[in-house]
Protein backbone atom coordinates (compact mmCIF):
# COMPACT_ATOMS: atom_id res chain seq x y z
CA UNK A 1 0.00 0.00 0.00
CA UNK A 2 1.13 3.54 -0.78
CA UNK A 3 2.00 5.97 2.02
CA UNK A 4 2.81 9.67 1.76
CA UNK A 5 4.59 12.15 4.00
CA UNK A 6 3.70 15.81 3.45
CA UNK A 7 5.78 18.49 5.15
CA UNK A 8 4.47 21.87 6.25
CA UNK A 9 6.60 23.53 3.53
CA UNK A 10 4.75 21.56 0.83
CA UNK A 11 7.43 18.88 0.14
CA UNK A 12 5.73 15.54 -0.58
CA UNK A 13 7.41 12.13 -0.23
CA UNK A 14 5.68 9.08 -1.70
CA UNK A 15 6.65 5.60 -0.50
CA UNK A 16 5.18 2.38 0.87
CA UNK A 17 3.24 1.84 4.07
CA UNK A 18 4.53 -0.68 6.62
CA UNK A 19 2.57 0.42 9.70
CA UNK A 20 -1.01 1.28 10.62
CA UNK A 21 -3.31 2.64 7.94
CA UNK A 22 -4.10 5.94 9.62
CA UNK A 23 -3.36 9.64 9.11
CA UNK A 24 -1.19 11.28 11.77
CA UNK A 25 0.25 14.76 12.15
CA UNK A 26 3.42 15.32 14.14
CA UNK A 27 6.67 17.22 14.39
CA UNK A 28 9.09 15.61 11.92
CA UNK A 29 12.51 14.91 13.49
CA UNK A 30 15.46 12.67 12.65
CA UNK A 31 17.56 10.26 14.69
CA UNK A 32 21.07 9.28 13.57
CA UNK A 33 21.40 6.03 15.56
CA UNK A 34 22.52 2.98 13.62
CA UNK A 35 20.74 0.60 15.98
CA UNK A 36 18.16 1.10 18.71
CA UNK A 37 15.02 1.74 16.64
CA UNK A 38 12.84 -0.08 19.18
CA UNK A 39 14.11 1.98 22.11
CA UNK A 40 13.73 5.14 20.02
CA UNK A 41 10.14 4.50 19.04
CA UNK A 42 9.15 3.54 22.59
CA UNK A 43 10.95 6.50 24.22
CA UNK A 44 8.08 8.70 25.56
CA UNK A 45 10.12 11.84 24.82
CA UNK A 46 9.19 11.32 21.14
CA UNK A 47 5.47 11.57 21.95
CA UNK A 48 3.70 13.45 19.14
CA UNK A 49 6.69 13.30 16.78
CA UNK A 50 7.19 11.60 13.42
CA UNK A 51 10.65 10.05 13.67
CA UNK A 52 12.94 9.52 10.68
CA UNK A 53 15.82 7.07 11.10
CA UNK A 54 18.80 8.24 9.02
CA UNK A 55 20.40 4.78 9.05
CA UNK A 56 19.13 3.18 5.83
CA UNK A 57 18.22 -0.35 6.97
CA UNK A 58 15.65 -0.64 9.74
CA UNK A 59 13.74 -3.66 11.09
CA UNK A 60 16.41 -6.30 10.42
CA UNK A 61 16.74 -7.43 14.05
CA UNK A 62 13.00 -7.27 14.83
CA UNK A 63 11.30 -6.43 18.11
CA UNK A 64 11.97 -7.98 21.52
CA UNK A 65 9.79 -7.47 24.62
CA UNK A 66 12.88 -6.67 26.72
CA UNK A 67 13.83 -3.62 24.68
CA UNK A 68 10.80 -1.38 25.27
CA UNK A 69 11.48 1.93 26.98
CA UNK A 70 7.79 2.40 27.86
CA UNK A 71 4.67 0.24 27.92
CA UNK A 72 3.21 1.71 24.74
CA UNK A 73 4.95 3.79 22.08
CA UNK A 74 3.57 7.31 21.71
CA UNK A 75 5.29 8.46 18.51
CA UNK A 76 3.05 9.64 15.70
CA UNK A 77 4.90 8.04 12.80
CA UNK A 78 8.05 6.20 11.72
CA UNK A 79 10.01 6.98 8.54
CA UNK A 80 12.72 4.72 7.09
CA UNK A 81 14.70 4.31 3.90
CA UNK A 82 14.37 0.54 3.71
CA UNK A 83 12.19 -1.55 5.99
CA UNK A 84 13.18 -5.19 6.55
CA UNK A 85 10.09 -7.27 7.49
CA UNK A 86 11.97 -10.53 8.19
CA UNK A 87 14.09 -10.20 11.33
CA UNK A 88 17.27 -12.21 11.63
CA UNK A 89 17.81 -12.34 15.37
CA UNK A 90 17.19 -15.05 17.99
CA UNK A 91 15.77 -12.44 20.38
CA UNK A 92 13.15 -11.21 17.90
CA UNK A 93 9.54 -11.97 18.90
CA UNK A 94 7.83 -10.15 16.04
CA UNK A 95 8.59 -7.54 13.43
CA UNK A 96 8.60 -3.75 13.48
CA UNK A 97 5.65 -3.37 11.08
CA UNK A 98 3.43 -5.50 13.38
CA UNK A 99 4.39 -3.34 16.34
CA UNK A 100 3.42 -0.15 14.50
CA UNK A 101 0.10 -1.69 13.41
CA UNK A 102 -0.67 -2.86 16.95
CA UNK A 103 -0.27 0.66 18.34
CA UNK A 104 -1.93 2.55 15.45
CA UNK A 105 1.29 4.19 14.28
CA UNK A 106 1.78 4.83 10.54
CA UNK A 107 5.12 3.88 8.96
CA UNK A 108 6.57 4.84 5.59
CA UNK A 109 9.47 3.15 3.78
CA UNK A 110 11.23 3.55 0.45
CA UNK A 111 11.60 7.31 0.57
CA UNK A 112 14.81 9.35 0.35
CA UNK A 113 15.52 9.90 4.04
CA UNK A 114 18.77 11.74 3.19
CA UNK A 115 16.78 14.40 1.36
CA UNK A 116 14.25 14.61 4.20
CA UNK A 117 17.03 14.99 6.77
CA UNK A 118 18.69 17.74 4.73
CA UNK A 119 15.42 19.65 4.50
CA UNK A 120 14.96 19.45 8.28
CA UNK A 121 18.57 20.49 8.88
CA UNK A 122 18.24 23.49 6.56
CA UNK A 123 14.78 24.72 7.49
CA UNK A 124 14.52 23.39 11.04
CA UNK A 125 12.05 20.96 12.53
CA UNK A 126 8.55 21.31 11.06
CA UNK A 127 5.14 19.71 11.15
CA UNK A 128 4.27 16.92 8.76
CA UNK A 129 1.42 14.52 8.07
CA UNK A 130 1.83 10.83 7.35
CA UNK A 131 -1.05 9.23 5.44
CA UNK A 132 -2.09 6.06 3.66
CA UNK A 133 -5.27 7.72 2.30
CA UNK A 134 -5.79 9.14 -1.19
CA UNK A 135 -6.67 12.62 0.09
CA UNK A 136 -5.45 15.57 -1.99
CA UNK A 137 -2.45 17.61 -0.91
CA UNK A 138 -4.76 20.56 -0.17
CA UNK A 139 -6.91 18.37 2.10
CA UNK A 140 -3.82 17.08 3.90
CA UNK A 141 -2.51 20.65 4.35
CA UNK A 142 -5.85 21.55 5.93
CA UNK A 143 -5.76 18.54 8.25
CA UNK A 144 -2.23 19.41 9.31
CA UNK A 145 -3.13 23.04 9.98
CA UNK A 146 -6.15 22.14 12.06
CA UNK A 147 -4.55 19.42 14.19
CA UNK A 148 -5.37 20.47 17.69
CA UNK A 149 -2.51 22.06 19.53
CA UNK A 150 -3.42 19.80 22.44
CA UNK A 151 -2.53 16.75 20.40
CA UNK A 152 0.97 18.11 19.83
CA UNK A 153 1.37 19.67 23.29
CA UNK A 154 0.54 18.43 26.80
CA UNK A 155 2.46 15.27 26.02
CA UNK A 156 3.85 15.03 29.57
CA UNK A 157 0.34 14.36 30.91
CA UNK A 158 -0.16 11.77 28.15
CA UNK A 159 3.01 9.81 28.94
CA UNK A 160 3.48 10.13 32.72
CA UNK A 161 2.22 7.42 35.05
CA UNK A 162 -1.28 8.19 36.42
CA UNK A 163 -0.52 6.35 39.68
CA UNK A 164 2.27 6.12 42.22
CA UNK A 165 4.06 2.77 42.16
CA UNK A 166 7.25 1.40 43.65
CA UNK A 167 10.21 -0.66 42.62
CA UNK A 168 11.71 -1.76 45.94
CA UNK A 169 15.37 -1.89 46.85
CA UNK A 170 17.34 -1.92 50.08
CA UNK A 171 19.37 1.25 49.71
CA UNK A 172 18.60 4.95 49.06
CA UNK A 173 14.96 5.87 48.58
CA UNK A 174 14.62 7.78 45.33
CA UNK A 175 11.44 9.51 44.24
CA UNK A 176 11.49 9.36 40.46
CA UNK A 177 9.24 12.07 39.04
CA UNK A 178 7.87 10.59 35.83
CA UNK A 179 7.46 13.23 33.11
CA UNK A 180 7.38 10.43 30.50
CA UNK A 181 10.29 8.42 31.89
CA UNK A 182 12.26 5.86 29.92
CA UNK A 183 12.48 2.50 31.70
CA UNK A 184 16.25 2.79 31.43
CA UNK A 185 16.35 5.33 34.26
CA UNK A 186 14.49 2.98 36.62
CA UNK A 187 16.74 0.13 35.48
CA UNK A 188 19.87 2.10 36.40
CA UNK A 189 18.47 3.00 39.84
CA UNK A 190 17.41 -0.61 40.45
CA UNK A 191 20.85 -1.86 39.43
CA UNK A 192 22.18 0.20 42.34
CA UNK A 193 19.57 -1.36 44.69
CA UNK A 194 17.74 1.94 45.19
CA UNK A 195 14.28 1.88 46.72
CA UNK A 196 12.43 3.73 43.96
CA UNK A 197 8.99 5.33 44.19
CA UNK A 198 7.73 6.52 40.83
CA UNK A 199 5.28 9.44 40.99
CA UNK A 200 3.14 11.29 38.41
CA UNK A 201 4.35 14.52 36.80
CA UNK A 202 2.03 16.76 38.85
CA UNK A 203 2.87 15.38 42.30
CA UNK A 204 3.19 18.28 44.74
CA UNK A 205 6.21 19.03 46.92
CA UNK A 206 4.19 18.10 50.01
CA UNK A 207 3.24 14.72 48.53
CA UNK A 208 6.89 14.08 47.68
CA UNK A 209 7.98 14.99 51.22
CA UNK A 210 5.51 12.46 52.60
CA UNK A 211 7.38 9.72 50.71
CA UNK A 212 10.55 10.56 52.68
CA UNK A 213 12.96 10.50 49.77
CA UNK A 214 16.71 10.47 50.15
CA UNK A 215 16.98 11.98 46.68
CA UNK A 216 14.82 13.10 43.77
CA UNK A 217 15.33 11.96 40.19
CA UNK A 218 13.71 14.13 37.50
CA UNK A 219 13.06 12.09 34.37
CA UNK A 220 13.22 12.82 30.67
CA UNK A 221 9.97 13.67 28.92
CA UNK A 222 8.33 15.01 25.77
CA UNK A 223 7.55 18.55 24.63
CA UNK A 224 8.47 22.05 25.68
CA UNK A 225 9.65 22.34 29.32
CA UNK A 226 7.60 25.53 29.58
CA UNK A 227 4.42 23.47 29.14
CA UNK A 228 4.76 22.17 32.72
CA UNK A 229 5.16 25.29 34.92
CA UNK A 230 3.71 23.46 37.96
CA UNK A 231 6.66 21.04 37.87
CA UNK A 232 9.09 23.96 37.80
CA UNK A 233 7.45 25.35 40.97
CA UNK A 234 7.60 21.97 42.71
CA UNK A 235 11.31 21.60 41.91
CA UNK A 236 12.01 25.15 43.14
CA UNK A 237 10.27 24.27 46.41
CA UNK A 238 12.29 21.07 46.96
CA UNK A 239 15.66 22.46 45.91
CA UNK A 240 18.11 22.34 48.81
CA UNK A 241 15.87 20.06 50.84
CA UNK A 242 16.77 16.88 48.90
CA UNK A 243 19.57 16.07 46.43
CA UNK A 244 18.21 16.35 42.87
CA UNK A 245 19.43 14.79 39.60
CA UNK A 246 17.72 15.83 36.36
CA UNK A 247 17.91 14.07 33.00
CA UNK A 248 16.97 15.79 29.71
CA UNK A 249 13.52 17.34 30.35
CA UNK A 250 14.43 17.04 34.05
CA UNK A 251 17.59 19.07 33.33
CA UNK A 252 15.56 21.76 31.56
CA UNK A 253 13.03 21.90 34.40
CA UNK A 254 15.73 22.15 37.09
CA UNK A 255 17.30 25.01 35.10
CA UNK A 256 13.97 26.84 34.81
CA UNK A 257 13.39 26.30 38.54
CA UNK A 258 16.71 28.04 39.23
CA UNK A 259 15.77 31.07 37.11
CA UNK A 260 17.46 30.15 33.80
CA UNK A 261 15.66 30.04 30.45
CA UNK A 262 15.20 27.40 27.73
CA UNK A 263 14.84 27.78 23.95
CA UNK A 264 14.12 25.59 20.96
CA UNK A 265 17.00 24.26 18.85
CA UNK A 266 16.72 24.46 15.05
CA UNK A 267 16.56 20.67 14.55
CA UNK A 268 17.61 19.20 17.89
CA UNK A 269 20.04 16.43 18.85
CA UNK A 270 18.86 12.85 18.37
CA UNK A 271 21.26 9.95 18.13
CA UNK A 272 23.87 7.87 19.91
CA UNK A 273 27.14 9.64 19.17
CA UNK A 274 26.93 13.23 20.41
CA UNK A 275 30.27 14.40 21.85
CA UNK A 276 29.98 16.17 25.19
CA UNK A 277 32.85 17.81 27.04
CA UNK A 278 33.09 17.71 30.82
CA UNK A 279 34.42 21.21 31.57
CA UNK A 280 35.91 20.17 34.93
CA UNK A 281 38.11 17.38 33.57
CA UNK A 282 38.35 18.29 29.88
CA UNK A 283 37.29 14.75 29.02
CA UNK A 284 34.98 14.14 26.08
CA UNK A 285 32.16 11.61 26.43
CA UNK A 286 30.11 10.07 23.65
CA UNK A 287 26.48 10.41 24.63
CA UNK A 288 22.99 9.32 23.70
CA UNK A 289 20.67 12.25 23.03
CA UNK A 290 17.09 13.10 22.19
CA UNK A 291 16.04 16.68 22.66
CA UNK A 292 14.65 19.64 20.74
CA UNK A 293 15.06 22.27 23.46
CA UNK A 294 18.12 23.49 25.31
CA UNK A 295 19.08 25.65 28.28
CA UNK A 296 20.11 29.11 27.10
CA UNK A 297 23.67 29.63 28.33
CA UNK A 298 23.44 33.41 28.74
CA UNK A 299 20.37 33.01 30.94
CA UNK A 300 22.46 31.17 33.55
CA UNK A 301 24.22 34.41 34.50
CA UNK A 302 22.78 35.62 37.78
CA UNK A 303 21.50 32.15 38.75
CA UNK A 304 23.23 29.74 41.14
CA UNK A 305 23.84 27.26 38.30
CA UNK A 306 27.13 26.77 36.47
CA UNK A 307 27.71 24.94 33.21
CA UNK A 308 29.51 21.62 33.75
CA UNK A 309 29.19 20.10 30.25
CA UNK A 310 28.95 21.46 26.70
CA UNK A 311 28.19 19.87 23.35
CA UNK A 312 31.34 19.72 21.24
CA UNK A 313 29.39 20.10 17.97
CA UNK A 314 27.37 23.24 18.60
CA UNK A 315 28.67 24.29 22.06
CA UNK A 316 25.19 24.25 23.63
CA UNK A 317 24.75 23.56 27.36
CA UNK A 318 24.78 19.82 28.20
CA UNK A 319 25.00 19.87 31.97
CA UNK A 320 24.70 22.18 34.97
CA UNK A 321 25.24 22.02 38.71
CA UNK A 322 24.00 24.13 41.58
CA UNK A 323 26.62 26.07 43.51
CA UNK A 324 24.83 26.02 46.88
CA UNK A 325 22.56 22.99 46.87
CA UNK A 326 23.08 19.31 46.01
CA UNK A 327 21.54 19.40 42.52
CA UNK A 328 22.87 18.69 39.03
CA UNK A 329 21.51 17.69 35.67
CA UNK A 330 22.46 16.66 32.15
CA UNK A 331 20.78 17.18 28.80
CA UNK A 332 21.86 13.75 27.52
CA UNK A 333 20.91 10.22 28.57
CA UNK A 334 23.23 8.45 31.04
CA UNK A 335 20.81 5.50 30.96
CA UNK A 336 21.66 5.04 27.24
CA UNK A 337 18.94 2.75 25.80
CA UNK A 338 19.84 3.14 23.04
CA UNK A 339 23.42 4.32 22.90
CA UNK A 340 26.71 4.19 24.75
CA UNK A 341 26.80 3.30 28.45
CA UNK A 342 29.79 5.56 29.13
CA UNK A 343 27.78 8.00 31.22
CA UNK A 344 26.21 5.59 33.72
CA UNK A 345 28.70 6.85 36.32
CA UNK A 346 26.40 9.88 36.78
CA UNK A 347 23.95 7.67 38.71
CA UNK A 348 26.81 6.71 41.05
CA UNK A 349 27.64 10.39 41.39
CA UNK A 350 23.99 11.04 42.39
CA UNK A 351 24.12 8.33 45.06
CA UNK A 352 27.41 9.69 46.43
CA UNK A 353 25.77 13.13 46.57
CA UNK A 354 22.86 11.66 48.55
CA UNK A 355 25.22 9.95 51.01
CA UNK A 356 27.17 13.16 51.49
CA UNK A 357 23.94 15.10 52.05
CA UNK A 358 22.88 12.56 54.68
CA UNK A 359 26.25 12.87 56.42
CA UNK A 360 25.82 16.64 56.56
CA UNK A 361 22.16 16.50 57.61
CA UNK A 362 21.80 13.26 59.61
CA UNK A 363 18.48 14.32 61.13
CA UNK A 364 16.75 15.42 57.93
CA UNK A 365 13.82 14.91 57.48
CA UNK A 366 12.99 11.20 57.71
CA UNK A 367 14.92 10.41 60.88
CA UNK A 368 13.66 13.49 62.72
CA UNK A 369 10.08 12.50 62.01
CA UNK A 370 10.62 8.86 62.98
CA UNK A 371 12.21 9.93 66.26
CA UNK A 372 9.31 12.27 67.01
CA UNK A 373 6.85 9.47 66.27
CA UNK A 374 8.79 7.07 68.52
CA UNK A 375 8.77 9.62 71.35
CA UNK A 376 5.03 10.11 70.96
CA UNK A 377 4.51 6.34 71.28
CA UNK A 378 6.42 6.12 74.60
N1 LIG B 1 14.44 13.42 26.09
C1 LIG B 1 13.93 14.48 26.69
O1 LIG B 1 13.68 14.51 27.89
C2 LIG B 1 13.54 15.64 25.81
C3 LIG B 1 13.29 16.92 26.52
C4 LIG B 1 12.44 17.89 25.71
N2 LIG B 1 11.18 17.31 25.39
C5 LIG B 1 13.18 18.30 24.46
O2 LIG B 1 12.81 17.88 23.38
O3 LIG B 1 14.12 19.03 24.52
UniProtKB/TrEMBL annotation:
GO molecular function: ATP binding; carbamoyl-phosphate synthase (glutamine-hydrolyzing) activity; glutaminase activity
Keywords (A to Z) from UniProt: Amino-acid biosynthesis, Arginine biosynthesis, ATP-binding, Glutamine amidotransferase, Ligase, Nucleotide-binding, Pyrimidine biosynthesis
Pathways involved: Pyrimidine metabolism; UMP biosynthesis via de novo pathway; (S)-dihydroorotate from bicarbonate: step 1/3; Amino-acid biosynthesis; L-arginine biosynthesis; carbamoyl phosphate from bicarbonate: step 1/1
Catalytic activity: L-glutamine + H2O = L-glutamate + NH4(+); hydrogencarbonate + L-glutamine + 2 ATP + H2O = carbamoyl phosphate + L-glutamate + 2 ADP + phosphate + 2 H(+)
Binding locations of L-glutamine: 45, 221, 223, 249, 252, 290, 292-293
SUPFAM superfamilies cross-referenced by the UniProt entry: Carbamoyl phosphate synthetase, small subunit N-terminal domain (SSF52021), Class I glutamine amidotransferase-like (SSF52317)
InterPro entries attached to this UniProt entry: Anth_synth/Amidotransfase, CarbamoylP_synth_ssu, CarbamoylP_synth_ssu_N, CarbP_synth_ssu_N_sf, Class_I_gatase-like, CPSase_GATase1, GATASE
SMART domains: CPSase_sm_chain
Residues of the signal peptide: none
Active-site residue numbers: 248, 333, 335
Matching PROSITE patterns: GATASE_TYPE_1
CDD domains given in the database record: GATase1_CPSase
UniProt enzyme class: ligase
Pfam families: CPSase_sm_chain (PF00988), GATase (PF00117)
Any GO BP: glutamine metabolic process
UniProt region (CPSase), positions on chain: 1-173
Residue intervals of the Carbamoyl-phosphate synthase small subunit N-terminal domain: 1-131
E.C. number(s) listed in UniProt: 6.3.5.5
Family assignment from sequence similarity: Belongs to the CarA family.
PANTHER family: CARBAMOYL-PHOSPHATE SYNTHASE SMALL CHAIN (PTHR43418:SF7), MULTIFUNCTIONAL TRYPTOPHAN BIOSYNTHESIS PROTEIN-RELATED (PTHR43418)
Quaternary structure, from the entry: Composed of two chains; the small (or glutamine) chain promotes the hydrolysis of glutamine to ammonia, which is used by the large (or ammonia) chain to synthesize carbamoyl phosphate. Tetramer of heterodimers (alpha,beta)4.
Task performed by this protein: Small subunit of the glutamine-dependent carbamoyl phosphate synthetase (CPSase). CPSase catalyzes the formation of carbamoyl phosphate from the ammonia moiety of glutamine, carbonate, and phosphate donated by ATP, constituting the first step of 2 biosynthetic pathways, one leading to arginine and/or urea and the other to pyrimidine nucleotides. The small subunit (glutamine amidotransferase) binds and cleaves glutamine to supply the large subunit with the substrate ammonia.
HAMAP family the UniProt entry points to: CPSase_S_chain (MF_01209)
Protein name: Carbamoyl phosphate synthase small chain
The species this protein was found in: Fontibacillus phaseoli
Name of encoding gene: carA
Amino acid sequence: MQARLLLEDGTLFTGKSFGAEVDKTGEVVFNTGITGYQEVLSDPSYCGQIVTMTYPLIGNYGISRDDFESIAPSIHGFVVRRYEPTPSNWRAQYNLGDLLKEYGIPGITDIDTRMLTRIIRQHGTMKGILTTSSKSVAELQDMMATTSIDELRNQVARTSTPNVYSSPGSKERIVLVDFGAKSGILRELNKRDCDVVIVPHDTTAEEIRRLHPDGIQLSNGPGDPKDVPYAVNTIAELLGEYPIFGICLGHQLLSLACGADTEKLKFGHRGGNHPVKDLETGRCYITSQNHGYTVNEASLAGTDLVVTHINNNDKTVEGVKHLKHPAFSVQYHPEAAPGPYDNGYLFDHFIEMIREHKRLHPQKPRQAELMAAAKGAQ
